[in-house]
Description:
- This is GNAT family N-acetyltransferase.
- InterPro entries: Acyl_CoA_acyltransferase (IPR016181).
- The protein is 44% helix and 20% strand.
- The chain has helices at residues 19-33, 42-51, 95-110, 123-132, 146-150, 158-163, 181-187, 191-195, 198-222, and strands at residues 6-10, 54-59, 64-73, 78-86, 115-120, 135-137, 172-176.
- Strand 4, helix 3 (95-110) and strand 5 (115-120) form a beta-alpha-beta unit.
Amino acid sequence: MENPSFIIIPATEAHLAYAETITTEMEESAKARGTGIAKRSPEYIKQKMREGKAVIALTTEGVWAGFCYIEAWGHGKFVANSGLIVSPPFRKYGLARLIKGEIFKLSRTKFPDAKIFGLTTGAAVMKINSELGYIPVSYADLTDDEEFWKGCNSCVNVEILKSKNRQNCLCTAMLYDPSKKAKTEEVALRTDFKKNIKLFERWTQLKKYVMLNLRKTKDKTLSLF
Length: 225
């Protein structure tokens, strides 16, 4: 496939027909990674489109290529850019970075004072977030809105989250705080991380190794009783 051209725009009612495809790809992608994301119905995705809280990527021929939406928590004090998905045929063209950039701009426009956060197991997403000004934080720095955390119940790793009293899991928490923009930009993306995404990959692999082995150890211990 030759390098395709993309159009990334705020999703509207004109894009409702893509909702089923988007939710199906979200679920399949989570299964392939062996991790989980909050399951969303086509109706939920349509609602985000109607509210103007999503961006969609299409090829210039009108083929669906990617999607991401905004969720607000804690009465708008926190915002999450959720459900980032790129259609498999278009995953090697830097589209995820372009979508993240557009949904970040939309979030800043709609919620200029909100803290923008994300939970991810993906090294590539961590790097993109860093480029936008996010920094790694503890789970305690995220929203305490129970509705947000309920979304983790559909994740295959939810038992790890519960065992850690919701203070840690396989996902890395990252946060953009507009009130600390200057400080955040200074520390957000280390020079060595700019040069080598493998440092992000090593971090995610290490965290996965530690967390999953702790769970296995706990299971083996419980099986003795």
